Amino acid sequence: MKIMLNIMPIPAFDDNYIWLLHNGQNAVVVDPGDANPVIETLLALQLNLSAILITHHHGDHIDGVAGLLKHPSTLAPVTVYAPQYEQFNFEHIKLAEGDVVNLPQIGQNFKVMWLPGHTLGHIAYVNDAYLCCGDVLFGAGCGRLFEGTPAQMLHSLHRLKQLSPSTQVLCTHEYTAKNIDFALTLDPENKDLIDRKQQVKRLRAKHQPSLPSSIDLELKTNPFLRCNQASIFAHSKANNNKELTVFTAIRSLRNHF
After folding, report:
1. What are the structural domain ranges in the chain?
2. What is the CATH number of domain 6-255?
3. Which of 31, 135, 247, 248 is the most exposed place for a label (fewest CB within 10 A)?
4. d(CA 30, CA 34)
């Protein structure tokens, strides 16, 4: 009998989520920027940490790795996976576009997607059910362009749009409410977006996460996936309706929102 995979976001810092994937015995964590909340959760749930998945090099996604690897509660060797396109000061298996990460301890395999834009070496982990997307895609938003170009990020987002609509999107920041407020300045008549705002408001009032999202929900409500829509162009202040021009314009607007 196959044990169902459990997914849960472990809050860290002001608005980060460290995603925990477990089957009641073994666990994998994604982008642990802080070891302490992960260790507390592992101990509380009596889980064995078997692997760590890293999407990119920013400190709020990797600074907990060392603490997890040396903590006494980590009984077995923990394998760390990270993009080959970036540099890290911990031992890891280097991953490139198209590689497959096998995680038999939790019964999952993930394919690696290289998605530059937020950083040049950013990767994501995806299978038929889950997308661990780091800071490429957020609830109703996308990551800032710290290293990549608008063209690179738009291409990365186009690739994510092709995933199954049912794919759960495990974003790493609780930015959804503010992203929705921004999205409504571009897409004010979007009923799906209006409904999402109310749903997120209810969740956050109960201190519950707004995530995971889904590809289907993002296609309906995320302006960065909808740059070819007339409403987005009309409110974007872009000087033409080419998708890249609109994307570049609204990314700049979001930076100052």
Report:
1. 6-255
2. 3.60.15.10
3. 248
4. 11
